[in-house]
Amino acid sequence: MSSDPEKMMSKADKMTKLTLTRWSADWRGATELYEQAANGFRASSKYERAKVALEKASQGQVMQSSPWDAAKHMESAAALAQKLSIWNEVADFYRKASELYVECGRAQPASDALGKAARALEDVKPEDAIQLYTDACEILEEDGRDQMAFDLYRACASVYIKLEKFTDAATFFLRLGVAADKCDATNSQCKAYLSAIIVYLYGHDLKQAEKCYNDCSQIDAFLKSDQNRAASRLLTAYNEGDIEEIKKVACSSTVSNLDHAIIKLARKLPTGDVTAVQMNAGDDLDEDDLT
Amino acid sequence: MTVIDILTRVDTICKKYDKYDVDKQRESNISGDDAFARLYGAFETQIETALEKAEIVAKEKNRASAVAMNAEIRRTKARLAEEVPKLQRLAVKRVKGLTTEELAARNDLVLALPARIEAIPDGTAGGTKSTSSAWAPSATSRPDIKFDSDGRFDDDYFQESHESSQFRQEFEMRKIKQASGDQGLDMISEGLDALKNMASDMNEELDRQVPLMDEIDSKVDRATSDLKNTNVRLKDTVNQLRSSRNFCIDIVLLCIVLGIAAYLYNVLK
Fold first, then answer.
1. Contact A1/A15 with Cβ under 8 angstroms?
2. What interface predicted TM-score (ipTM) does this complex get?
3. Is B250 or A291 the better-scoring residue by pLDDT?
4. Looking at the record's lineage, which domain of life comes first (chain B) (predicted)?
């Protein structure tokens, strides 16, 4: 075998093309050559060519009915595409890899592949990233491994927060709560509900926050938790327009145990919302007048 | 004799000897007489029940019920304190068949009531109370000097006694110590919160890893059995290869080849 990757590539290409002399493509030999070529290209930092080689190697593996190897090659190709910042290819490759993993019946690597894709695209194409995260979570939930999905939900919600879509972020936290409920992970569940309430409050949506709080109070695990107390203190402080109390709750240890993004929101809480607080103070005066 | 007969006999005997029942006589006396005596009797009973409850609280181990009972005692005390003025008004009313000394005695009893009510322990008694209780005994031990007309409102009256200033100092010191103790407790509570959070996160992580470990277990079991199989087959193959018959054949053939080579060498030389 020649050590020049280009020569290997052309040889492998010839092996796979059907001509008069060759009536069936020799995928095994071709795949080997493609893999070796890819290694050669990577060693010489020709990432574009390496990526192409890996794609072809993966296809060869598919032809040989070994989806696992094919998926692995696809993932490496996607990593190279990430290095080259070709974002749509990154998404495509990772998706293909994930499908191949699902073919193997291995849900965890499938969702891992989508997760890696989403993380790569977080800054560049957040909507795609969100879609990838959602798909990854669905794959895991179908397989019944909800606990692995927690991190994905949290990452997705933080992407939404960065995009300032607070209702969507809160929805994801509630989905996290549902997943946590299925696995009896009460601590994560309560933290998820408290995060959802804080996100609603940050989005100037006191009514939603209160509705959310009422819904969550139906759940025993939440009712008995520290997070419940913190949430009720926060909501009463909001209703009374007591900024000091809001700040105290935001700096309490219960809130400091949540996600980093949520802690930042909580610390900013009253200042993001001064008009609503004043409106609530006005409501209090009206009540006094009636009595 | 049937049960009914026994009951009727017991009833008649009780009625016959009722006049010797001291408690009942006292009760009928009191209820017959005047409003003051009735009310005073009621007061006495209430104070007694409160004192009993206070004793039970002192022996009570369960903090929650102790607190609840203390709260009840305090409520009773407040109610009694409210009704004392009513009793006072009744005390000064002249009732027929009552001597002036008795009237004076009644007044004293009413005046002593607030002190007695306060004296019921309700779990909040502390150093500051001893200043007020320090005054109470001196009043009740002098029945012929009435409090209201006591004109000795001179400087000594309002001067802090040595005891009371000591008590005040101790109260302040205790308050400061408690504040610093509270700070320490706050820090401990924060540390405990962090520990609790970390522990529950660890718990969840371990729960997450349990099924993974089970999978690893089964996969490793399969791999070991495969390896064992392969090893056995390999051993068989190697044994076959190393069998003595093959060795002898190899050696013989080797000798023949060497012999041929030596013969050729000789010939060519």
1. no
2. 0.75
3. B250
4. Eukaryota
